[in-house]
Design a protein that fits this description.
The structure holds 2 protein chains of 2 kinds. By secondary structure, chain A is mostly helical. Chain A has 2 domains: 1-266, no CATH class; 279-488, no CATH class. Chain A is 74% helix and 2% strand. Chain A is built from 19 helices and 4 strands. In chain A, the strands form 2 sheets. In chain A, strands 1-2 form a two-stranded antiparallel sheet. In chain A, helix 14 (326-357) runs antiparallel to helix 15 and helix 15 packs parallel to helix 18. The longest helix of chain A is centred in the last third of the chain and has 32 residues, at 326-357. Chain A is globular and about 70 Å long. Chain A starts with a helix and ends with a helix. Chain B has helices at 2-10, 12-30, 34-56, 80-111, 116-125. Chain B has a single domain (2-57, 79-125), classed as Orthogonal Bundle (Helix Hairpins). The chains are: A mainly alpha, B mainly alpha. At the A-B interface, helix 6 and helix 7 of A face helix 3, helix 4 and helix 5 of B.
Amino acid sequence: MSSHLPILLFLAPFFMGVSMPILTSKKPALSPNITLATVSIMVVLAILNLRVVLLEGPIEYAFGGWTAPLGIAWVNDSIAAIVVLTISVVSLLSVIYGRVVVTSELAKNTPHYALILIMMSGLVGLIFAADLFNIFVFLEVAALTGYALVGASGGKSLVYALRYLLLGTLGATLYLLGVSYLYVATGTLNMADLADRLPDLITSTAVAAGLIFIFLGLSIKMALIPLHSWLPDAYVSAPSSVAPLLASTVTKVALVAWVRIEYMLIGPNVDVSRVPVLVLLEELGVIAALIGGALALIQTDLKRMFAYGGVSHIGLILIGVSLGNDIGFAGGMFYLINDAVMQAGLFMIAGVVLYYHNVSTLDELKGLGHIASPWLTVTLIVVAIGMVGLPPTGGFFGKWNIILGALEAQHYIAAFAVVASTLLTFGYFLKVFAKWFHHPQSVEANSIAIEPGLRVSLGAISFLIVALGFMSDSVIQSLLASLNNGGL
Amino acid sequence: MTELFQTLVQRPNFVVFVILFLWGIYIMAAHPNFVKKLIGLYIVQTSAIFFLVAFSAKNGATVPIIIEGVAADPSLYVNPLPHALTVTAIVVQVATLGVSLALVSAIYRRFGTLDEDEVMGQLKNE
């Protein structure tokens, strides 16, 4: 039973998502509850799965008993288990939050909830997949539902959803092309098998072109600067109820897929025609971290600012995983987990502010600290500390390990970029707080109480950000265990 | 130069793939009409699928079914895997087609036009 946990994690949301229209045909009001129940089951399964992986080491799940390379395999190692648990917990909180903040039109919309569940199943598949073509299929399952969710509220979000679709599908096609190139060169799609055959072929132009296509395709999906242009528009116009879910999961999971490919196929000392590949990726991360932070600093719209903050953090994570040493890699992956939680928190705050106070820009935020619920203010402060990266939050330990890794590799530009992006993050949160605690002209001391569901999700996000800081050592150790035990 | 020309002439399939791919991207970038952008996108997707089919083609080979009593010789059979990939990629393409056309028709109902510049103009005035 325990060996089938990965497939159960995939099937639970998939089955419920597909059968949602039948189950709720008589009572559409049931669909939020079914979604909540399914995601709770996923959290339980993910915890059990993590326990099994930590006790028994990485497991390869072979579909139908056909082992790789003949059959299709999923790798259930500690990185996959931890990321799946993070994604499930964040989605559970986003669903609890989404039940309150949802517009009355979407609340009764059964397909909307079915889409959320099917997207979850696509993300789970994407995290476990150990086969290049499998990644393509799950990438598209997650992306297609994502396009539909962005466009769900109608109006101008339709235009941005279509733009997201045009770019995202182009990315998926580039990825498919890259996979075909690698297949032509090696004759296999399984990642472990590819890792065996690639080192002799890495100088071939077909392999280099294939890897470039794969990276281009995935960097559109993970919104790496300069291919990020779809992200801010899409997340700003997406319905408030699903924005935290989209912002915290889709780009991070695409990055996890790239990390797997990068770690398996591109070793630390690989260079294609005298260009060291990992250093190149790291410099792309540096550019994304700095430009993303600078773009966030000049935004006037709250959600847009947070979206650019997420773009700059993708760069930070890419720096960490491309340093070529264990400590940087663990720091990058740990930061990815933190970033998923923090992005969810940021978009929840922006959503609650919009829902209760009808505020979406920085200027309208003036003096809100005096009337907003204390739950909101405390969460904003905790998330800001996490985003800037001060102890004891998880964000600090992620950045700290990335910097240690950069110093160990003697890549001082990378270390500088992490510090500089920290300062930029501090800059734009300073702008938020300057408005938030601005003394209002007319004092009305009554703070608006927020719904219990929102208190639960905001409180849990703040708790998780601090808890991840205290658990950082054990999480990083188990992430590293997966590298040393031949996982990934 | 002659060598390059020779390689190109020997591989007409791949030349067609490159032409289709670039043509599709050009249509996506150059036309302001949403439906034409989608047509460009489908040409790009089709070119990738065409590439999958092109490299798996084999002269004089047959379907990969092993008959009992006859020695199985790999050189007589077509590799079935790229074709399985092709079918899956086509399914993904059809699903994308459905979602994108739904979005485009919703945009047309909302804005009354399919021209990207006009839609963006309307969005700015809101």
